[in-house]
Amino acid sequence: MTIDKKDKPPNEATKLKKGSVGTWQSAFYSLAQVGPAADIAILLIGTFSDVGARAVTAVIVAWLIYGLWMVTPYEFSKLRSNAGGYYAYAAAATKSGFYGPATAFSWLYENLTSSAFAVLGISSFLFLLSSEISALKYLWIVFALGMIVYVTVIPYLGIRPSVQYTLITGFLEVMFLFVAAVIIIVMVGPGNSFIPFSLPVSILPIFFLSMIFSISDFTGIGISTTISEEIKEPKKKVKNSLLLSYLFSGLALIPATYALSVGWGISSISGFANASDPGLIVFMRYLGPIGGILLVIFTINSYLSNGVAKTNAVSRVWFSASRDHVIFPSSFSEVHKKYRSPYKAIRAYMILMIVVNLVFGLLFGPKTGALILLTGAGIGIIFTHVYANISLTLYTKSQKVFKWLVHGIVPTVSTIIALVVVGFTVEQDILAQLNHPGLDNFAYAASAVVGLIWSFVFALIISYYYVKKKPKIATKAGTYDADGIEINWD
Known about the structure:
Layout: H1 23-34, H2 36-41, H3 43-51, H4 55-69, H5 71-77, H6 86-91, H7 99-127, H8 131-134, H9 139-156, H10 159-188, H11 204-216, H12 234-264, H13 278-323, H14 343-364, H15 366-398, H16 404-435, H17 439-469, H18 471-476
Helix pairs in contact: 1-10, 1-12, 1-13, 3-11, 4-11, 4-12, 4-16, 5-12, 5-15, 7-9, 7-13, 7-14, 7-15, 7-17, 9-13, 9-14, 10-12, 10-13, 11-15, 11-16, 13-14, 14-15, 15-16, 15-17, 16-17
């Protein structure tokens, strides 16, 4: 079967602004979603809490795992250009379109929960900066609402302001973290150790549990695929931006994680996760007030740029699925006449961010609330990658461009690793609740279990529904390509 030209968006009301983004802008747009400085403030706390001084090993392994996962968007980006990213890749992978709705629904769970990284993350970071601020119990709500407004307004104004902003600030953030890490490591001197790179067999289950946070450190590297309809020469430039953002993410996070480990002190590392803004404490200790102030500035900006990139990515996935009449209301496919942004999808996301983050922030506090939500977000994005991996193999075989290594072996290995991480996460969170019953442990376990049911069970049921009840919609979903490339299923 061939998808012909008439299946493209019919009018300007559903077209994004093509040619607005370049390679480097796209790369740092993805890196903004990673939020390296913000990772230091929130996600690394979860990793240190699980594996202590071995956090750097967890981050390195997570970076390598994510490198395997990046093969799928890298290969797909050379073949398809659609704002739906992983959703569109999966939807167009087979004639039936089976994996499209499942991928969109799985990614939706990540969308709803991962906004906590920016919203509750910055609220927690600012709230814990001083005892005077922390004394104002609900001041974090002001920070959260201000953050939501900011990360809504910038994307609403179009993609160009967003990518220019993330390019400049993102490059400065990476350079600061790398240089600061090197200085701290040098100043630690004899305190440097190989212990952070060791991995006793006894902690392997906990190590895999920590992967849910460590992998989340790198979540977002692939989102340049969601602006492929707005990038100049997307078949060439998206893959280059993916590679650049992946390399810069490792440069920013790996040395910094080791520097935090030895800077805090290996012998007292158990206290790292329980401290208020431990990353800031280490930077102040070795780099003085200037280093501390710069970290605060870059961390705040990291949350801001992460939120902006996240809103852009989410709104474009919802826009693409809406355009295909999959899951989302058809109105989400409308773009602003002046700014060419999917403004109705952005508005809807803003409302959901307010509800989800305020509920979890009020129940558990901004810091714990963020980590609970991000546990589920990690599972949601993992299943999104799993469906995309399967789709890459199926699509390249059907289009007769299949290569065993990059289209068969790597996606399969990536999927196996991903499912192992999910299995350990769900198991360990449930065991934590059984062994130490409490509201927080129950919430972590519930977040993991709900994430699994939503992203696996419900996602596949929804796909089955579309294929059986709405086969024409499922078949055409994801077939739009910015360059007019047709799909042959003959």
